[in-house]
Design goal:
Helices cover about 40% and strands about 10% of the residues. With about 375 residues, it is of the alpha/beta class. It has one domain: 3-Layer(aba) Sandwich (Rossmann fold), CATH 3.40.50. A nine-stranded mixed sheet has the order 1-2-3-5-4-6-7-8-9, with helices on both faces. InterPro entries: AB_hydrolase_fold, Epox_hydrolase-like, Epoxide_hydro_N, Epoxide_hydrolase.
């Protein structure tokens, strides 16, 4: 494949689906550890029920067809295949928007926001705020697999941003917006830095103004604001959380063997990442189920069927994980930014023109709260048109 853009269609061989079901049926299940449920990780009974549904109830072909309803393409950029959705709006003045998905997620993250963004007229929205959506699979994720042997050059967020600028140029878009969540929130500001003459604005779900623990961040804040920042700094940088990030940043290859050999190991990993938003309940009770079960399993299936659970960990190993870089080259909008104190911190290095303190049921906001997210994206870019 050359620099040309080729049509792409998902077509998973039936043998791969049969193998997945056989592996799910042959799972070796661990004993339940003592202690409150969820306090030591995903409970055995919860995962068993989900795995049984994945094996006998979930219909991959239906969701494959749902994804194939979106126009898909592939091209080679910087030596890697880049797969992407390209859904044009029926509105003639729609703004091109490149949307970068999360980790550990995929282009399936945007299934429920593409319609409201590309055709707001059909979804009760303002047709003057329509978008042509381009949603690439990050390198090493899904249908953008790394070649074998892998290119040893790091895929930093900045390198991805340069690739995205090239992709938009190949599509003929000279003026466009950028949106991102999680890993996508790292790439999108880098895209503004790489192509400020083309990017009209960057919309993020969050990450700007987040404390690092530097005492200088507390300067000029009152006691209540200091306490708020200190609390979040401890949550982000202290002993909380499940501890996966340091391991991925150091030994992703070791973890990849289990994720690529056991679909249940892959599923458990995703369940924990998708439900861990406000932290595990202190009493060990189950966290809320913010994402539709089939949406979760579509994502798990994409990781399993493309064998990209290991290669997707470059976001940590290559230093691309963390918080978005500051940039004032183009305006920024944030949908889930937290209280005003975090906006004040973000404004030290960014041109913030839109800030909302929205909440969501999961860190995978496009999956748990697609309607409010699409509305916030439209509101932000409506200020820039």
């Amino acid at each position: 494949m050359s620099a040309e853009i080729q049509p792409f269609r998902i077509a998973i061989p039936q043998d791969d689906l049969d193998d997945l079901r056989a592996r799910l049926a042959a799972t070796r299940w661990p004993r339940r550890l003592p202690g409150a449920e969820w306090s030591r990780g995903v409970p055995v009974a919860h995962l068993k029920a989900l795995a049984e549904y994945w094996r006998d109830g979930y219909d991959w072909r239906a969701h494959e067809a749902e994804l194939n309803a979106f126009p898909q393409f592939a091209t080679v950029i910087d030596g890697e295949q880049v797969h992407f959705l390209h859904v044009r709006s029926p509105e003639p003045d729609a703004l091109p928007l490149i949307m970068t998905h999360s980790w550990p997620n995929s282009i399936a993250e945007f299934t429920d926001v593409i319609g409201p963004l590309t055709d707001p007229r059909a979804h009760g929205g303002d047709p003057r705020r329509a978008f042509h959506v381009v949603a690439p699979s990050l390198p090493g994720f899904g249908f953008s697999p790394f070649p074998e042997p892998a290119d040893d050059r790091p895929w930093s967020a900045a390198r991805v941003a340069v690739a995205w600028a090239e992709l938009m140029a190949r599509l003929g878009y000279g003026r466009y917006g950028a949106h991102g969540n999680d890993a996508g929130a790292l790439v999108s500001p880098q895209l503004a830095l790489a192509a400020p003459e083309h990017v009209v604005g960057v919309h993020l779900t969050g990450g700007l103004g987040m404390p690092t623990g530097d005492p200088a961040e507390l300067e000029g804040l009152d006691d209540g604001e200091r306490a708020e920042v200190a609390f979040l700094a401890e949550m982000l940088n202290g002993a909380g959380g499940s501890g996966y990030a340091p391991y991925l940043a150091r030994r992703p290859q070791t973890l990849s063997y289990g994720l690529l050999d056991s679909p249940v190991a892959q599923l458990a990993y995703l369940v924990e990442r998708f439900t861990e938003f406000d932290g595990w309940p202190d009493d060990g009770g189950a966290p809320a189920e913010p994402i539709d079960r089939d949406r979760l399993l579509t994502n798990a299936s994409l990781y399993w069927l493309t064998a990209t659970a290991g290669s997707s960990s470059w976001t940590y190993y290559d230093g691309a994980a963390g918080m978005p870089v500051d940039q004032a080259a183009v305006p920024t909008g944030v949908s889930h930014g937290g209280s005003a104190v975090f906006r004040r911190l973000a404004e030290r290095g960014n041109d913030i023109v839109h800030w909302a303190d929205n909440t969501a049921g999961s860190h995978m906001i496009a999956m748990s709260d697609p309607g409010p997210l699409a509305a916030d994206i439209a509101e932000f870019f409506g200020k820039l048109r």
